[in-house]
């Protein structure tokens, strides 16, 4: 009850990160490069306070009603405009985030024991949602451009159960930061379409592009929103506490999902949040916020990348990601991943072992640059470099 007691009185939002109020809190003194969260200082408290007030002023008691099963039309119409033709509001359904959308897809569209093809390494919790829904996961090889089309073809053509769908995260992939190029997206789509197998495109980081160069079209757009279900989220671009996202697919698939009685009973998930975000999209405030957020994240990525480049031992390599929250460091040789994580922990830096995300080809760790300020990321990189240099001295094979 300590947390609730402390929360009484005027709120200073940056200081309210108590264990019973937020999902994860690192021990004091730790540089936490673990979670894919936004830094508390990047969460737009004032912007959202205004957006909720505006939504209540504009929509009145309708904002406090059950929303329509597929989500409020003003939001779906604005999203359809952003996604471009052929998207209409009927292609879109509001969800309470990408996690919720994955659960809906796994349980409404597919059956227990269905096989889902996943990347060799990928979003651990997304895979866990699918596995908990009774789906059987099969990993497909990746290279530097993403899932390998020939390997996908082999997996789809293999004897035994025909896979039910392919789960991909092609834009600023968690954990590697990879942006799958357009050509590879088209190849993967062609293989999936040849076998009549749908693709679920997890695009949680699509808004977090950090370079000025253009973005490839989404796989959904490339397919004309046929055979691809695209998942979007406001967790990474605004705040995860909104619990707000969407899925976009052909209208028949959307209708199948929204026919579930969970929506008849509960209406639109997070209706008030969806109307607050509607006001931000309608006024351009969301796009202004994105410009600011991208610049702040670019500074964070660059601080971490610069300090790692200058200090990491030669055998550690990473690519500077073009977007998203993560930097993926791989080590060559026999270096033991657990040893890297332990050495980091002993230096008070929390990082995640690559093995948590599947079977990386080489020992790897994921570093999130989203959650700490540039000076803290620089300090964390110095600590990591020193800690990993000392493991190197202890390894006879290195
Ligand atoms: C690839 C990916 N998908 C989905 C999510 C979760 O998204 P949401 O907060 O919208 O449920 C995350 C968050 O870490 C993610 O990395």
TrEMBL record:
Gene3D superfamilies: Type I PLP-dependent aspartate aminotransferase-like (Major domain) (3.40.640.10)
Keyword field: Aminotransferase, Transferase
Presence of the UniProt keyword Acyltransferase in the record: no
Tagged with keyword Transferase: yes
Domain Aminotransferase class I/classII large: 59-383
MF GO annotations: transaminase activity
Name of the molecule in the record: Aminotransferase class I/II
